[in-house]
Design a protein that fits this description.
The chain has 232 residues and is an alpha/beta fold. It is built from five helices and eleven strands, in the order E-H-E-E-H-E-H-E-E-E-E-H-E-E-E-H. A nine-stranded mixed sheet has the order 2-1-3-4-11-10-9-6-7, with helices on both faces. A two-stranded antiparallel ribbon has the order 5-8. The N and C termini lie close together (11 Å).
Length: 232
């Protein structure tokens, strides 16, 4: 399986995402925001960072990058797309997922190992988890507060479109503790925490077994690989 990772001006975690893809067992493909070519990939990752310096709104300018025309088209055809942190903001700005992301309610940038509850496993990116499973994924953002209108929030909850929820602490004031959502079809997922930073023992969150041994993030990437094999 070939998984593309798109680099935008200001992307910081594109290399980490490419490494996560490789560790999971797929072929990572580096893509450039200014191109109109997805190079025949089977899935896409929009990585974290500060695209275009977060000017205007986080992800707003990147959502209009040339390659996003192809991303929107591919998502519409059912290609799995994962937006991480700044990538989640791009997905929201491109209307590929509902809601929006605003400044953290405490006004500060936050970095922590965040506990999440898996709310939905009916996506290519989360099929390897169990419903209700608690996982730990690193979080780092300044504008991670998830918002939506009361009507939209009701729809997200009612239709099971919430994929991850913060537990233990809400780090940024997200409504309903929402950490990640999916589109109606289920192939597009956006979340604020960074699974690509929890894929290799020795470099992830601490666990009860050992320091920095957490690898819950790897399941995102192995899940999409298995989903592709099942469909094949």
């Amino acid at each position: 399986m070939r998984i593309g990772v798109i680099t935008f001006p200001g992307s910081l975690d594109d290399r980490d995402a490419l490494r996560a893809v490789r560790i999971a067992g797929a072929e990572p493909v580096a893509l450039w925001h200014g191109d109109h070519d997805l190079q025949g990939v089977d899935a896409l990752v929009l990585p974290g960072g500060f695209s275009y310096g977060d000017y205007l709104r986080c992800g707003a300018i990147a959502s209009l990058s040339p390659i996003m025309t192809e991303v929107v088209d591919a998502a519409g055809r059912g290609m799995p797309v994962l937006g991480i942190c700044n990538g989640f903001q791009m997905l929201a700005e491109a209307h590929l997922v509902a809601g929006g992301l605003i400044r953290n309610d405490h006004g500060n940038f936050i970095r922590r190992d965040q506990h999440l509850v898996v709310e939905n496993t009916a996506t290519p990116w989360t099929s390897g988890f169990e419903q209700g499973q608690e996982i730990v994924i690193p979080l780092k953002n300044g504008e991670g507060g998830f918002i939506a209108s009361a009507e939209e929030l009701k729809r997200l909850e009612g239709e099971g479109l919430v994929v991850f929820r913060y537990t233990g602490v809400n780090p940024n004031g997200s409504l309903d503790d929402i950490a990640g959502v999916r589109n109606e079809r289920g192939n597009v997922v956006g979340l604020m925490p960074h699974p690509e930073h929890a894929v290799e023992p020795g470099f992830g969150p601490d666990t009860a077994s050992a320091m920095r041994s957490g690898t819950d993030g790897l399941t995102f990437f192995t899940s999409v690989i298995r989903s592709a094999l099942v469909e094949a």
